[in-house]
Amino acid sequence: MNSESGLVFGAHMSDGVKDKKKPYTVLALKYRPQTFADLVGQEHICRALTNALASGRVAHAFLFTGARGVGKTSSARIMAKALNCEQGPSTEPCNVCSACHEITDGISVDVLEIDGASNTGVDDVRELRDTIRYLPARGRYKIVIIDEVHMLSTNAFNALLKTLEEPPSHVKFIFATTEPHKLPITILSRCQRYDFKRIPLKKIVAQLEHIVREEKISVTETALTMVARKGDGSMRDSLSTLDQVLAFCGENVLDEDVTSLLGVVDRGLLLETSGSIFAHDAAGVLDAVRRVDAFGYNMRQFCQELIEQFRLLAILKAVKQPGELIDLADAELALLKEQVSPLTLDDLQRQISLLIKAEGEMSQSSFPRLVLEMALIRAATMAPVIPIGDLLERLKNLERVIRSGEAVAGPATRLEREAVTPSRPTPSAPVAAPRSFPTASSPSSPPSPSPSSAARSSSENSGDSWSGYVLYVKEKKARLGAFLEHGHPIGISPTKVEVGFPADSFYYSSLSEPDALATLTSLAREHFGGAPELKLVKLTDSGANLPPTVHEKKKLHSRESLKQAEEELKKHPLVAAAVEIFGGKLELERSKDGL
To answer: In which band, very low, low, confident or very high, does the pLDDT at 13 lie, cut at 50, 70 and 90?
Structure first.
């Protein structure tokens, strides 16, 4: 072990002596892809270009588009080497022959690399056009690579059009740009376009792991993930960031050093903050903001990264198999899945809305910390939402209970149920026997309610009562039942059902129509049995001496229920304490009808 260590140490020393004699090569250049197989995250481009080379269907002009640092210029060089390789044309350059070496070193006379930002004029394009007329010096093709081609002027593009459409057979054009929308459509129509994608985080991390192993540097996966995330899908940016980290930390890279150098928010702090929000821990979120301020992080940047974290949580909650929707390392993904499992999507969406609003306000506020603290407190103390389906189900149940007359058990309920007392059949009476109501011969002195009537079910109460008939009609014909609620029951017998309305009543005129009257008669026969005829009677007075209508009984029941609720509210200890603390008095607001 000692001898091996000594050999490694000696090798490092000799390398160090050599390194002093030649300049340092940055990682982005040292590990630049030299074959299509070396390209990371662009498999679709590699397949298309290698198939074109294998089949001999190589176009005269290519357009490579995509974000910075994803391999556009590297692919152009690899394509040039594959075309001019002494062993080719082949799907992969050999990188051994002199042609490949010259192109790699950028000294090949047959490969012209032009910076579109520096050569924007029409004179530059005319000079290029004159140059490509001549045959290549030693290779098969003259290859023109124009980087940032969108920077050319309009006149330069126009000068290039004819040559680009019908170039000499020995010329190939390869254009690269990050902004293809700035190119004239006449240029786009003359090129084969290849769109380079942003490189996924996992693939960048894997490539960085390979590089640090080659460089014999100790770096954790967490640190490499932070570096890759800083690169934002660009391999070149990620390698430049890794160079910066290695210059700062040396050969032993610590996570804390990377966090401090890059100024990024620690993922552990983000997880703790979101966990405090989900645990309704206001003190925890305030402590997280304090730590952000102590570390010197930018408050707005922290809010933005927290928004991104909640976005990932929402995706994990909404999609069982997120796949490429989430760009995270496996360890971070496992932690987020564990945190999101007990949450609801509605709550996550509300919390995201709060954070997005706070981020917008922070850009214009002189107190960004205060804005962030208030937003996090609101997110931590936010009451959970009740699903709309549950609310609708509760409303349906409440409506069903009100219709059946069982909303509140008490004196008001008994009054509503027994305003017209039915003559119930005895338990031994046949079930199929016709049902009937006694006529209201003495409406001024209604019969007293029986003690057992409050315990009856709604079906028993509606079977032999006027209220039951009205409820039956309302279930069958809601419009007719609503009108019938305003009628006073005068008399109900096996042959006739009389109901009274004021002479000028809208309900009387509506129910007097032949179709409506026939329907009510038919429903009366179905409900009561036998063959009663329904008769509408015009009342000379308001019907004050007749039994109350179903509508009046409902209003009476509601008022009694409200009165009872008011009494209970006044006696509640919290209400009494509030009145005593604030030195006021309790006032309940009523609607116009007193309900």
So the answer is: very low
Q: Above 80 in pLDDT, residue 464?
A: no
Where does 395-423+454-555 sit in CATH, by number? 3.30.300
CA-based nearest residue to 483, from 453, 520, 527, 452: 520
Mean pLDDT of the chain: 78
3-state secondary structure 87-103: CCCCCCCCCCCHHHHHH
CATH code reported for the domain at 270-385: 1.20.272.10
Domain ranges of the chain: 27-195, 199-264, 270-385, 395-423+454-555
Are residues 547 and 466 in contact, defined by beta-carbon separation less than 8 angstroms? yes
Give the separation between CA 101 and CA 28, rounded to whole angstroms.
Answer: 18
Does the pLDDT at position 453 exceed 50?
A: no
Contact 415, 323 (CB under 8 A): no
Strand blocks (E) in 54-141: 61-65, 111-115
Given a contact cutoff of 8 angstroms between Cβ atoms, the answer to whether 110 and 84 are in contact is yes
Task: Identify the pLDDT of residue 476.
Answer: 83
* pLDDT tens-digit map of 49-75: 999 999 988 999 999 999 999 999 999
Residue 41, token pair as written in the block: 């995250």
Judge: domain 27-195, CATH 3.30.565.10: no
CATH for 199-264 is: 1.10.8.60
Query: Which residue matches tokens 């954070």?
Result: 355
Residue 5 has pLDDT above 50, yes or no: no
